[in-house]
Amino acid sequence: MIHPETADPEALRTAMTDQLVREGAIRSKEVEAAFRTVPRHEFAPEAPLAQAYSAHEAVPTKKNEHGITISSVSAPDVQAMMLEQAGAQAGMRVGEIGSGGYNAALMAEIVGPDGSVVTIDIDPDVTSRARQLLDRTGYGTVQVALADAEHGIPDTGTLDRLVVTVGAWDIPPAWTDQLAEHGRLVVPLRMRGLTRSIAFDRDGERLVSRSAEVCGFVTMQGEGEHAERLLLIRGKEIGLRFDDGWPADPDALNGVFDTDRVEKWTGVTVAPREPIKGMQMWLAAALDGFCLMSVDTDLDTGLVAPQNRRANITLLDGDSLAYLAIRRTADGAEFGVHGYGPNADRVATSLVEELQKWDRDHRQDEPVIYVYPASTPEADLPAGRVITKRHRRLVISWPQEGQVSKSTVTEKEK
Q: Which of 45, 156, 186, 368 is the most buried if burial means most Cβ atoms within 10 Å?
């Protein structure tokens, strides 16, 4: 084992890459070679070597006045995942939205001297830093531009791959306008509060997903910025986060947690470390009152016991709500539901039924996510949950048997 305080950067880089290969984050020889070559620590001079080469740790590079990170060098496992999703090859033209320098250098290694890489950011501090670091490390051929990504990458022709490394709420037309026919867009896209890194292949005027992975990124700035809305309950202890579907009468929830709790257990179990991203997407697509609950750890009184205190699946219906809970079993855990409010039993039952439906019909499935222009008529869309944004209509579509019925959500600009 290498001790991080005494090892040199090359040994740490080798150990990090070996770990990513063992864990399956790196699967291709092209991505592996790039990670073994690019000196990550040179793009994260703010961090100790051990942090720079930690396989699962991001390095913040800029924070706003509230101490919130607005730019970072993403964690290596996330960068590897997205590069594998992109599947860039030698000689390709690749664009990146969200600069830092390191990821662009990895791309430059992958596409080689016959390819090209251009990276943009809206923040002049970020682009200036990226330019300096790329020049210093020998990647001067990477183009760096200051621009608002809402309007695409300026002075750039057709791209074979476009990789977005900031959290996006929508997909501007400029992004697909620059994609070659059969080109690929990789973007951390937020849908009903859930973010997935999605690899979309272009298919004429629409995009079709080929993979989707759980991720988290700093959010888009500029014209494409879109903030969630937060409804605070019991002071600031508990919050409900909405991408869409803001309650018609938020005051109806006053005192909701003063009612008796209803508990229901589903019989749906999960093994240790078993991924449940498909379950989350199923519930987001199936439930009209879907939102996410957050509990402030500093103010937590233990009143609620959600499965996830940062972003817990919740179903809201007027003056009542129900949220996802969990309890240990001998060989894993079982999902349950806690309900509150005058109609707690009914709302909790609805959430239980959808959990059981996912377990019965779609446990091994992942949805296909389609992206169409916002002007596309409802009749021309495939079956599934339709989410209408500013530029696009997204459809979360599952295999036909037991599929979510077609329903529509309009995510209005806030």
A: 186
